[in-house]
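quick one, 213 residues, struct below
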Amino acid sequence: MMIDPQPTKVEPKLVEQYWQWLYKLSKNINPALNNDGDRDSEANKASGNDVYFLSFALSGESLRNLGTIDVGRKFLVPSLSMCVTEGECTGLNQIGIDDELKKIVDVDQNNIKDRKIELDGYLVTDMEGYRVRTNSFKVDYPEKDPIFSIPEKRWGNQNVRAMADGVYILWQPKEGRHRIHFEGRIPLPEKGTNLEDREYTENVTYTFTSVLK
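---
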């Protein structure tokens, strides 16, 4: 089965913008939590980006209906993507902090299991071909209730060092009804890797209708 148009790889700068957008959103509005599709529209207005950012689900499984979307809008689809910031980690060597962050995202991404992305039933292959690792960049934390494990004393911090890695695809569907699905899991991290001590499972489905303006 083929799909038209084909998905394309995402540029690192857009991946940075994606995480800068997501980190700033507190729990009460972040689409990664308690989201059946209702949070995506308002959150994407806040992104200021022409690309529609889809989100993973911290709860693991999520069904999300976006309603109608203007045809021609591109979607960024993240698959078991990861961003780590210096504020979430302890004991980092501040002199070589970029190397420290890189080690953490490497452990995460090199242990992915059962990753799958489907676009209207089309199974995306060559996952490594869509993998993007950024250089270090800066994010801002929200004033309260971040979605990640950030110490309260750091809430509201700005220009925090970060690094991201993962599979990201860009897709511009034609007019009509569409379904985007992505899933997979990351097993328990190795001891001493500075990651949360739990397995992460992702199973997210978005549905929407692309319509002419």
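Residues 8-211 form one domain.
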